[in-house]
Amino acid sequence: MRIVIVGGVAAGMSAASRARRFNLDAQIVVFDRGEFVSYGACGLPYVIGGEVEDFGDLVARTPEQMRARGISVRTRHEVTGVDARAATVTVLDREAGRTTTEPFDRLLLATGVSAVRPAWAQTDLGGVHVLRDIPDGQALEASVAGARRACIVGGGYIGLELAEALRARGLSVVLLERGPEVAGRMLDPQLQAQVREELERGGVDVRCGVTVEGLTGTGRVTGVQTDAGLVRADLVVVAVGVKPNVELARAAGVRLGKTGAVAVNARQETNVPGIYSAGDNTQSTHRVTRRSVHIPLGLPANRMGRVAGVNMAGGNARFPGVVGTGIFKTFELGVARTGLTQTEAEELGLNAVSVDVTSTDHAGYHASSQPIHVRLTGERGTGRLLGAQLLGRNHLSVKRVDVVAALLGTRATAQDLFDADLAYAPPFSGVWDVLLVAADRLHRQL
What we know:
Strand content: 25-35%
Number of strands: 25
Structural class: alpha/beta
Low-confidence stretches: none
Radius of gyration: 23 Å
Mean pLDDT: 96
Shape: globular
Strand order of the largest sheet: 3-2-1-7-18
Helix content: 10-25%
Number of helices: 12
């Protein structure tokens, strides 16, 4: 059996590793158009900020290490076409400039996502960057070294993390967000303002409700033109979102879902026999709503890859879906969410209610205690938990979100959360943890 994998980062390498463990006789070939494989892209902002020493530290497995496991990894090889009927892929060797045709018995499309570049960002000006992979990070690092004023366009995960990173490097930072607040797709409006306030405490100039119209400069960027005036900058980071890379899938006759990402079943199989898809280019099922969603995050990508790897090698594994768990920090504030926000639940027509509890992450009398805020959302009538949002001054405290994430997968109720036997000691929580207090309050509202 010959297994061909397109894309060698999270999903692709997870699939290759699982396929090798499950089937020692399979021939496994991974093609990646870039130089690096099997690395943690989520760590890129922390290299820029100096919390991680080098981009190489993000690499989990080198091509040589994967080859030692019996997996053929071909970097700088771009798959440019798929012939599903002939069961072949067309591969361009980017170094040699030579094109070959490669057969497959099973094919995995793990092509990931690309950063969205609006028309105004499609420029040759130096100092304009996106941040999706290690080469992007290296290019940004080179620009940071000579920059003084940075402008970040977009108030999502990448923009918020980079704001702190660039401030740590001594740059003045302006963050532009087209929406009314930062973190708009992650949190309810009641919590978004707290994130902006933390950015401002860290010295970031946050400007919301601003639309970018273009860039200024000759050779190198000198500013960002907006509907509210010119923002001077010699470094611009475009962080307005991502889009799934589905060109190969579409050309192969693979069906795309309503999200725009590749549609698969629980085995990561597409509608084309022998072709699988996994990772950020692939949609999944939300375990709370049972609807198709496209949530490109690291853990789901790796997990989809593992499932695809087992099944391509002859096994039987299933991907359970996602609950939309995300977490980040900006300066001293930790932010986490899982499931649905109140806003999202209402948009779906659910009869939802949310409660807010502000407390301390440790016993209130303990010297290390810090404020923490929990918003818990549930469904009236059923008592079902729908989601949670947490903000904590001790950023590690918001990992409590994992408790709710685990319960959401079982369709648990607010009462189930309240009944959870959580650990207690004064350096870790109050005897009634803030999650339990929120669950009790929510249960009474449902």
